[in-house]
Design a protein that fits this description.
The structure is a single chain. Helices cover 17% and strands 35% of the residues. It has 346 residues and is α+β, with helices and mostly antiparallel strands. Strands 1-2-3-4-6-7-8-16 form an 8-stranded mixed β-barrel. The termini are close together. Bound molecules: (1E)-4-oxobut-1-ene-1,2,4-tricarboxylic acid. The site of (1E)-4-oxobut-1-ene-1,2,4-tricarboxylic acid (NQM) has 15 residues, from α2 and α5. It comes from Tropicimonas omnivorans. Belongs to the PrpF family. InterPro entries: OMA_tautomer-like, PrpF-like.
Length: 346
């Protein structure tokens, strides 16, 4: 059994193991599967929480890039398959990377707030995390609240630059705001996360269902998977059978004063909230006239748009900045918390 230094953290509405790259063994994926307890739907023999949102890993190293502090590689450890995938990024786990980099001495806290510039290896883009360091000391305590997490913590605002086409090569990899797959109008889009955005009504749901009820609807899941496999090829992702992208988001009119309401499969379990870059991408889809998301969205005016993306446990506000009609910047408020620092065995 291998013993490896690890920190467990909540990042946004997800949770996972944070490792320094140099601490991981050569047979990294085998170790991570053992450490998480995969494959097993209950992950009983490991640290994973039997949910894709709690079976996540951040691998962090000091960056050699100019103007960048650390490089972050996100790994999804599948729950019920022996698969460790780097095919997607994760903006929730990203929220813990800044504090982790300070904890491990890769970045020095300076002043009341410390900006940590992070190169996201999965997609080759840069994010800036603003970490609270009052008096030069890292803190997780604060008054920021995000839906899907009880209580309050220090805010960790995240700013993303130029995320369009992160994995698919273009914001709209087919060149269209709408494509029809299996008779359903879909927006195939990537503003940081490859997503397929469809109308909830077209998929035969209301859009306010509980995630567990949607997961129990086998007909819906089969229909979503058939669309996803076709969309993957159209989005330059190839065969996505064993990939956790694209995400499948069904949209409906806002129900709580937001921009629009969402239910997202990621891609086989229904998210209890929505991913960070997923929300940025769905919000961007809502700005495309003629798209299923635009048809149901209530949009604010102006070039800096605060879009409240409603999800099963509340909302996530995405601030999208437009320049010449294109998205140039996306910002989202997250929080994070250290849960455990020690040795994990796998
Ligand atoms: O979209 C879940 C999460 C995510 C990803 C998923 C995420 C993002 O909530 O940036 O955060 O969609 O697999 O952690």
């Amino acid at each position: 059994m291998r013993a490896v230094r690890a920190m467990w953290m909540r990042g946004g509405t997800s949770k996972g193991g944070y490792f320094l790259a140099g601490d991981l063994p050569d047979d990294r994926d085998d170790f991570l599967l053992r450490a998480m307890g995969s494959p097993d739907p209950r992950q009983i023999d490991g640290m994973g929480g039997a949910d894709p949102l709690t079976s996540k890993v951040a691998v962090v190293r000091r960056s050699q890039r100019a103007g960048v502090d650390v490089d972050y590689l996100f790994l999804q450890v599948f729950v019920d398959r022996a698969t460790v995938s780097d095919a997607q990024n994760c903006g929730n786990i990203l929220a813990g990377v800044g504090p982790f980099a300070i904890e491990r001495g890769l970045v020095q806290a300076s002043g009341e707030e410390t900006d940590v510039r992070i190169f996201m290896e999965n997609t080759g883009q840069i994010a800036t995390a603003r970490v609270q360091t009052p008096g030069g000391a890292l803190t997780y305590e604060g008054t920021a609240r995000i839906d899907g997490v009880p209580g309050a913590s220090a805010p960790v605002p995240l700013t993303f630059e130029e995320t369009a086409g992160s994995t698919c090569g273009a914001l709209l990899p087919t060149g269209n705001a709408v494509d029809e797959i299996d008779g359903i109008a879909c927006t195939l889009i990537d503003n940081g996360m490859p997503c397929v955005v469809m109308s909830a009504e077209a998929m035969g749901i209301r859009g306010d269902e509980d995630p567990a009820d949607l997961e129990a609807d086998l007909g819906l899941r089969e229909q979503l998977e058939a669309i996803r496999l076709k969309a993957g090829e159209m989005m330059n992702l190839g065969d996505v059978t064993d990939k956790s992208v694209p995400k499948m988001t069904m949209v409906s009119r806002p129900m709580a004063g937001g921009a629009l309401s969402t239910r997202t499969f990621i891609p086989h379990r229904c998210h209890k909230a929505i991913g960070v870059l997923g929300a940025a991408t769905v919000g961007t889809a809502a700005l495309l006239p003629g798209s299923p998301a635009h048809a149901v969205a209530t949009l604010p005016d102006g070039t800096e748009k605060a879009l409240s993306i409603e999800h099963p446990t509340g909302e996530m506000t995405v601030i999208v900045t437009l320049e010449d009609g294109e998205v140039s910047r996306t910002a989202i408020l997250r929080t994070a918390r250290k849960l455990m620092d020690g040795t994990v065995f796998g």
